[in-house]
Amino acid sequence: MDLNAVRMLVQVADARSFTVAAGQLGISQSGLSRAISRLESALGVRLLHRNTRNVSLTPDGRQFVEHCAPLLSGLEDAERRLGDRPSTPSGVLKLTAPSMFGRKVLVPLAGQLMAAHPQLQFELVLNDRLVDLVEEGFDAALRTGPISDVRMVARPLRPLHWVTVASPAYIAQHGEPATVDALRDHACLAVRNLRSGRLVDWQFREAEGQLREFTAPARMVFDSGDPLVEGALAGIGIVQVMDFAVADALADGRLQRVLQPFEGRSRVLSLVYPPSRQASPKLQVLAEALLGGNW
Fold first, then answer.
1. How far is it between the farthest Cα atoms of the chain?
2. Which of 61, 183, 212, 239 is a plausible cystine mate for 232, CB 3.0–4.6 Å?
3. What is the set of domains in the chain, with CATH numbers?
4. pTM, whole model, 2 decimals?
5. How do the pLDDT tens digits run along the chain, 295 residues long?
6. How far apart are CA 230 and CA 119, in angstroms?
């Protein structure tokens, strides 16, 4: 029997509403409904009366909840007692993150954490798809921009900043642009938004802190931002990317920042996870490493 589904049933019985119970549990209403339907199938009885206004227990459901509620209370007490003891991060931590951030930051960071905690494992899904953490069984996600899902905990991390860079070889051959408009005389590498069909604008801070959007004259266009760094390193042209993506290349001189006085574009980065994962030791060590900001 699925104990999580039993807990969900008790929560629905108390709230008399799938919507309210789903919000309290931090899961989707559809996921909650499916979990209880699976429990009903496993038990071979109907546990809830459902209608458009509210839900209520059937006689079988009432009897089942009356027997299970004290047992669940005892289990929760046992979990709290165990939770007071020091716990070692262990097991699989399933995460999703944008592709470039995952490759450049999360993979090395995961390697460091596995070295420090031998019982810890990672499963990483690195793409820009917005996954449903609860439905798809993820522990957490790294997401950029505002977080609109109120069911989730969102811990803000160090903001991401955009930098405009080129290789020393490109600058030696073509010169360095002194103004944003001077980019029109340079080879730029850009990304096309596949939904709108437009090139993704670059952004700069100009006089009095005003943000200016600029459509770069692209000599080469990609369908994602991942190849931009490789293009810049190859000396093909100028790119605008997030700072973490080129931190190593800037540090060792393979790339140089251009138009530095006009930098200023940034984006919020958050570690997002369901409230049920709040006390997870494996998630806590990841959060501490990310909040340390050494990336």
1. 82
2. 239
3. 3-83 (1.10.10.10), 91-155+269-292 (3.40.190.10), 160-267 (3.40.190.290)
4. 0.65
5. 778 888 888 888 888 888 888 887 778 888 888 888 999 998 999 999 887 677 889 999 888 888 887 777 677 666 655 555 557 899 999 999 999 999 999 999 999 999 999 999 999 999 888 888 877 889 999 999 888 887 889 999 999 999 999 999 999 999 999 999 999 999 999 999 888 889 999 999 987 778 899 999 999 999 988 899 999 999 999 999 999 999 999 999 999 999 999 998 888 999 999 888 888 899 999 999 999 877 7
6. 35
